[in-house]
Amino acid sequence: MIGTYFAIFIIVVIVLSGLFTVKQQTNAVIERFGKFTSIRGAGLQLKIPLIDKVAGRVSLRIQQLDVIVETKTKDDVFVHLKISVQFLIQKNHVYDAFYKLQNPHEQITAFIFDVVRAEVPKMILDDVFEKKEEIALAIQRDLKQAMLDYGYDIIKALVTDIDPDEKVKIAMNRINAAEREKIAAQHEGDAQRILIVERAKAEAESKRLQGKGIADQRREIARGLEESVDVLNRAGINSQEASALIVITQHYDTLQSIGSDTKSNLILLPNNPNAASNMLNDMVTSLVAANKVQESSHENETKKPKK
């Protein structure tokens, strides 16, 4: 009786050992005595106990491999490039992916190194940053062609990081900073030049308006003096007496204006009764002398024989 139970137990264990499950998006490779037999998909599967075995499981999901490659650019700068490759095993080529490559990650890494070290040395450092998309496309193109024979499909290749030597980065930052300082100095110089030009224009305009104001002021003063002389002449005062009266009036107006300002300097002017008359006589004498000199010069010009 005990032997029967034991035999049933052994049979149940053997049958259960032939059952196995395969996860979604995974294939199981079945071998019989070391020889490939079949590929099983997701779900509950059955194999011959003690004869068949699961040699391995292959994921059909997209995988990513990150590789850091050190290489030299055309201008002799060493850089580290981080390459991210996304790939998957083709469902109809699970046998090739499982049996043809011993270590697929190492194989993909070798291809990435080969492509990067063939492309980057053709570029200077600045071009590596600007043309990283071209590098990624070259990796994807060459790697896809090489890995299709092994059942692998390359979905995408990305250059996710470019890291030059620390001294090179410091030098690049210094060059960038110097260039920005140069541009800032140029803008500052332009601003100073514009400010100087505008200030000169404003000063010239101010001088022009000031001169125009002085000219208008003197014109109005002369017109006022002329009208004053006409009024005095109509009152029976001759021109000389009228001129003396105007001069003495302006003289006292000036003294009053100076005295009303506490911060004005002291000016000593002749203040006797004949001061205005003497001042006027001096002015008339100067004008007469100037007229005589002008008339004499004009007569000499007219007497010269014409050639």
From TrEMBL:
Record-linked Pfam families: Band_7
Membrane-spanning ranges: 6-22
Keywords carried by this UniProt record: Hydrolase, Membrane, Protease, Transmembrane, Transmembrane helix
Gene3D superfamilies, A to Z: Band 7 domain
Compartment(s) where it occurs, according to its Swiss-Prot or TrEMBL record: Membrane
Gene Ontology CC terms: membrane
Highest taxon above the source species: Bacteria
Ranges where the Band domain occurs: 17-176
Annotated membrane topology: Single-pass membrane protein
Molecular-function GO term, any one: peptidase activity
GO BP terms, alphabetized: proteolysis
The protein's name: Regulator of protease activity HflC, stomatin/prohibitin superfamily
UniProt organism field: Lutibacter maritimus
